[in-house]
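Lecture 7 notes. Example A: sequence first, then its structure tokens.
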Amino acid sequence: MNWYRNRLRLFLFAATAAAFVPAHALAQDAGLGAAGELVDPQVLRVCADPSNMPFTDQSGEGFENRLAELVAEKTGRKSVAYTWFPMITGFVRNTLTANRCDVIMGYAQGDELVQNTNAYYRSAYVLVYRKGGGLGGVETIEDPKLADKKIGIVGGTPPASNMAAAKLMRSAKTYPLMVDTRIAPSMAEIMIKDLLAGTIDAAIVWGPMAGYYAKKSGADLTVVPLVKEKTGARMSYRITMGVRPSDQEWKRTLNRVIRENQAEINRILLDYNVPLIDEHDNPITQ
């Protein structure tokens, strides 16, 4: 599966090159008293993209930056240090697997490249449209109200196959999957701007990105999680933290942090307007 499934915050249109920030030196002793684990017991070493809002960026403004601070506090780390690398092929190999860092703060459940913690949130692709624009009540890609609308979609993402099945691609505006977000806006940000300008009538975007840029726009936009699709690709995903397969004790520690601080984690995510859904696809609002 593509980037979106393997690591869904990586639906963030990856960069094609990146500069490294020197990683914190590896701990000399096994972290957390677990033989064979190279987790630094003093510093939370995070693997992250340097320009990947609303998830992470070098200025620390992303919600995963804030989550990293929370994890550091709750695990007794003195600080947070980052190994920066773009979300492209080789991200895991050049960061986590190379022992340059100890955790990826957001990783889709089920990918084989990392060991997943328990999920700390669940979200979905969403449909975004202007209120009062004739799309009120639309909850699925198959809705007849979308038949004559120009919909923005990132090519190669799961909703694109559902749009093709609904014969909506002929009039769609397709946006590229890969863009260097260090030098250009993300496609999610561009899609929201195009929606406000009337270039498109609606946009289908991964929920955390759509929610963030919709809120940032200040416009009166509706964000509808696509959780009622009857056929086609699944639209919702559980997001975990990713660690090395060998770091069993570290995984258990992070699972404890997630379990004991879920309410605070939710507050951070909701601050960024992330559309949170529970296991029954009901919205989480607090």
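Example B, a different protein, same format:
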Amino acid sequence: MDKTALRELKKGIDGGFRAWTREHGDAVEAFFEPIKQMLIWSEKFLLETPWPIILLGIVAIAWFASRSWKITLMTFVTMVLIGYFDMWDNTMRTISIMLVSTFVSIVLGIPIGIAMSKSDKLQSLVTPVLDVMQTMPGFVYLIPVVMLLGIGKVPGLLAVVIYAIPPIIRLTNLGIRMVDKEVLEAADAFGSSAWQRLKNVQIPLAMPTIMAGINQTIMMALALVVIASMIGVKGLGQPVLQAIANQYFTLGMFNGLAIVGVAIIFDRVSQAYGKRLQSHSEVVHGK
């Protein structure tokens, strides 16, 4: 393609997308309004609740999910250090958008993964889309969402969800497909309907694999939260961006370590919970 034709093609695509955003932008914003309110509520709750209560709640969740005093102690020490070095508010903002984006990814991803596990044709159609979503550089996701929704929380959340949702879809599909066929035949022999077989057999047995998908979704969401700070998402990413722009080594290092600390907490807690589910599954089914 010669340069003139290529330039005209790019201008045509950009112009068409801009025209579409002008025509449908308000409708798209209205569609995402509930998610915006969820973000506002979660951030307000984490910031306005006294920090000892939030700290106690995070430590309690770590204990009940992992039942490991080492992970619980690590969680407590990490969160205390984050607060001691004056990064508590930004950490709460980061946790807020990460939790909401993970929730949206789970709500959308698990049904898609279940549908893929039931249809080879659907799997063949969705898998290339997931490949593109996982390999596309994170910065690229910011361009269309900013053109469509502007700068703020919702565009950042949308970019995070697009980047983070593939693992939960893939591993939900994989986990359900890996359920032993003999177990499914036994469920059919007892007269289970398709819904009962899915709810009572396939999902419980696939839950450790699904939890691994949730773990990877959390990690990818945290990875993009820093990039999303470029379009106005508040949190630990903004000081890192400021440190890059102004060459503030200590500011960037401290906030980067805070992100690492939060990532390690969620990674260890979700992994431990997944292992507990696996152990429970092995005991129940006599493996």
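Note on Example B: The longest helix spans residues 249-284. The chain has 13 helices and no strands.
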